[in-house]
Amino acid sequence: MGQSLGTAVALELAARSREEAAADAPRPFAKVVLLSPFLSIPEVARSALLPLRVLPVPVLRAFVRDPLDNAAAARRLRRSASGGATRVQILHGDQDEIVPYSHGVQLASLIREAGDSATAEMVTVPKAGHNDLWAPGYETSVLEAIRDFVERP
Q1: Distance of alpha carbon 33 from alpha carbon 29, whole angstroms
Q2: Under a CB-based contact definition with an 8 Å cutoff, are residues 112 and 119 in contact?
Q3: What percentage of the chain exceeds 70 in pLDDT?
Q4: Among the listed residues 97, 78, 91, the one whose alpha carbon sits nearest the alpha carbon of residue 121
Q5: Is 119 exposed, middle or buried (CB count within 10 Å of its CB: 0-12, 13-18, 19+)?
Q6: In the predicted model, what is the mean pLDDT of the chain?
Q7: Residue 84 backbone class (left: φ over 0; alpha: ψ -120 to 50; beta: rest)
Q8: What is the rounded average pLDDT of the residues 61-72?
Q9: HEC profile of the chain
Q10: Digit-coded pLDDT (tens) for 74-118
């Protein structure tokens, strides 16, 4: 499970576990939960920061050593078909002011394109912003969704 920046770590580990399973390593991750995921850091900068005209893209790129590319990790999930499907649950607030909700939707679509090697479940958290998923009024439904996903065979 990963939230925001942590989604890049969680999805990268899932992709690597699939690749290593192909090389007779331990079984790949069966399930991954992503909260408020993004496509990549450059995409967040392009969609969230550029409208504010804080810094131009070339300046932002100079500071990004690792693009934390969730879209690329999702593509790697579908390339490696060994070890059964990796199931991914994405929870995203539709009022996220930092990572656009559309990033979660697009990431779910990329994962669904994996066919038999990965599946994605998109859970919209209505009226929730980026840091609201664990806030009162949201946390119960978020925890129930995660529990249901994890306990599902």
Answers
A1: 11
A2: yes
A3: 75
A4: 91
A5: middle
A6: 85
A7: left
A8: 76
A9: CEECCHHHHHHHHHHHHHHHHCCCCCCCCCEEEEECCCCCHHHHHHHHHHHHCCCCHHHHHHHCCCCCCHHHHHHHHHHCCCCCCEEEEEEEECCCCCCCHHHHHHHHHHHHCCHHHEEEEEEEECCCCCCCCCCCCCHHHHHHHHHHHHHCC
A10: 888 865 555 578 899 999 999 999 999 999 999 999 988 866 677
More confident residue, 29 or 38: 38
Q: How buried is 11 (Cβ within 10 angstroms: 0-12 exposed, 13-18 middle, 19+ buried)?
A: buried
- Residue count of the chain: 153
Query: pTM of the entire structure?
Result: 0.85
Identify the residue whose tokens are 């949201």: 138
Beta bridge partners of 123: 91
